[in-house]
Amino acid sequence: MAVDREQVLKEAAALLTRRATTSMDEIARAAGISRATLHRHFAGRDALIKALEEQGIAQFAQAVDRARLAEGDAVGALRRLIGETEPHAAMLAFLSTENQLFEGGEINAGWLELDARISALFRRGHEEGDFRIDLSPAWLTEALYGLIGAGAWAVHEGRVARNDLNHSIAELLLGGIRRSMEK
Amino acid sequence: MAVDREQVLKEAAALLTRRATTSMDEIARAAGISRATLHRHFAGRDALIKALEEQGIAQFAQAVDRARLAEGDAVGALRRLIGETEPHAAMLAFLSTENQLFEGGEINAGWLELDARISALFRRGHEEGDFRIDLSPAWLTEALYGLIGAGAWAVHEGRVARNDLNHSIAELLLGGIRRSMEK
DNA sequence: AGATTGTGAGACATCGACGTCTCATTCGGG
DNA sequence: CCCGAATGAGACGTCGATGTCTCACAATCT
Q1: Which of chain B's ends, N or C, has fewer CB atoms near its CB within 10 Å?
Q2: B30 close contact with A: CB closer than 8 A
């Protein structure tokens, strides 16, 4: 009887990631509950989205914590970041696209903080001479999100094996396409 | 007086890429015209989307033609591709995401052909020893789209200068982040 | 059994976006 | 300079989604 809130959010994330216009009725039926019950647990569509964002940001924040971005050199930190983030690639893709349609609403503070932490990693890479200075931290941050999103989709479509995702993103970002670049 | 149809479609692509629910009114105002005029040029929302797809694919195809992917080495061809594609970055981002959303219907044949041509370039880079073999053509194609999309949005948001976009995408894709990699 | 709580089904009003329409204004060509 | 075409502003009616509400039923607890 008791509605499983986590399960509802999981179903909602799956549907909304695929189609942002999914109706409350569709979400409710996908979760196996009635629209009325869905509204009893989430004040409205906005509340549901917000709950999704918070859960997603919390997961992403934990991943960033585990990556220990301040330790070691920037290259290793970036590798750890990609490794920890990869399991939540789909959620992150949802967040990065959903979060950038702000237009008036306040951007989630947690998201801004995560954005800043990742930018700081790229800046550190610049300062320590590990990353090329002609690519700005802002661009690299956007590029990272873009590659993760592209990777999530490629895995979803079967064009890239899930086991290869981590390596594909990290190597492309760090070393580029060129063959001559060793390790 | 004459409405710049291309410009309208370009703005529409930039907005619809990030938020599929962008209203006709928002698109109209972003393009600097009234909602009435927008409806005079496009029968409706569906017609606008369809026109976007067709024009986008046509422009992208022309860009790919101009890039002469079969000439010279794969590195130069990829640089040309990015250079020719960059002006239509917003449009391309819209196309690649739009092709993700739909399910069941038929994927535009023109898009599939373009996809194949890009993949072929990366495959050539592998065969000629210019590109690393551990990154598959399918992944590199998706990554290219992802980076172009991320770049288009970054420019739209003012986080990257339009003049830097070409260089940012090409260098990241070809050389990666690492500083030690020369040229 | 009785009471309490959660749920499903559906009615209902509201809201925003869409598509169509009219009318005054403005731009550009002849 | 004048006239036709294009545009902007806005007024509708329509439709789908939303959020609230009521009522009946089922599950759980005492």
Answers
A1: N
A2: no
Sorted by where each starts, the structural domains of chain A and their CATH numbers stand as 1-42 (1.10.10), 53-175 (1.10.357.10)
List CB contacts of B48: < 8 A, sequence separation 6 or more: B9, B12, B24, B27, B38, B42
Res B181: pLDDT? 45
Nucleotides on chain D within 7 angstroms of protein Cβ: 6-11, 16-22, 27-28
B143·A181 Cβ contact <8 A: no
Give pLDDT tens digits for B59-110. Answer: 999 999 999 999 999 999 999 999 999 999 988 988 887 776 665 456 778 8
Structure tokens at A117: 């932490």
- B140/B121 Cα distance (integer angstroms): 10
A158: left (phi over 0), alpha (psi -120 to 50) or beta: left
The answer to whether the C-beta of A24 is closer than 7 A to strand D is yes
In sequence order, what DSSP letters do the residues of B66-107 get, joined into one string?
HHTTTSS-HHHHHHHHHHHHGGGHHHHHHHHHHHHH--SSPP
Burial class (CB in 10 A: 0-12, 13-18, 19+), A169: buried
Q: How far apart are CA B100 and CA B107, in angstroms?
A: 10
What band does B159 get if pLDDT is binned at 50, 70 and 90? very high
Structure tokens at A111: 């998201």
Cβ atoms B35, A114 nearer than 8 A: no
